[in-house]
Amino acid sequence: MAARMPIKHTVDLLRLQGDALWAGGEFAAKLMTDPILDQMAPKGDGRTPVLTLPGFSGPEVSLRPLNRFLNKRGFVAESWGLGINRGPESMEYIATLGRLLGDRIKMMADENGKAVSLIGQSLGGVYARELARMFPEDIDRVITLGSPAHVKPGDHDLLNSGVGLAVRFFTGRPVEELLNEVELEELAIHQPPPGVPLVAIFSPFDGVVHQETAAIPDEYLGIDGESPRENIEIICSHIGMGVNPLVLLAIADRLLEDPETWVPFNARNYVPAPFKGLPKLFFPEPAALNQQAS
Asked: Sorting pLDDT into bands at 50, 70 and 90, what band is 187?
């Protein structure tokens, strides 16, 4: 095990560097395809509130392109307003987050006459799921972007070891210790929030979070009453999910899907007839949604 760890750290460092370089390319792709995306992406009604939560160690500016895109498309998108996501020093922070954001979520819902949609990148998606568990009446749906929402004790090796080092730097605690705390306190963060639609967008080439932990497990997929749960696999980086044009298209589409008539995301709906085969290059598997009521 000791001999294996330096190798894993080296591989993870290279994966993280590659992911960051890829994200730069995705940002450039967004700039070049903005006019096309503006024509393709569906439009909101001007009163659909969205709150975005950045990933671990990410500043609010990291999701500014996403917020700008959504606001331009007729959504009412805002950042969480808490600055850099420094991670939890303990699992008690989840309750603290509820106190910090609960009133704001309710205010956004009241002002727009609609429940709020939450979009969280990486750790921000974990927080979004827990906020939905705390405030189901004020939250319309949750969309996670490469979020390790299904990591359980013993699964920390599925995370990039660079994340582990960052967690220790920001919180003073190792990842495995925080995950063990989840188990000890019998927290249900690995389970979808009941009564709230959940969409997990993930990449098989994510350089930070393994797809096994970012995708909703098969046992939770499906429709629970009016709570669809859907996986969408997209070829993209981890860091660049908030700027990738294909991810942005999927986000806009899922924000407008009616929970009562929910059907899986299909990128082919946005492609002209001669190019219907192109989505297979970037969406390896059709969106997964078990239509059988659980």
From this structure: low
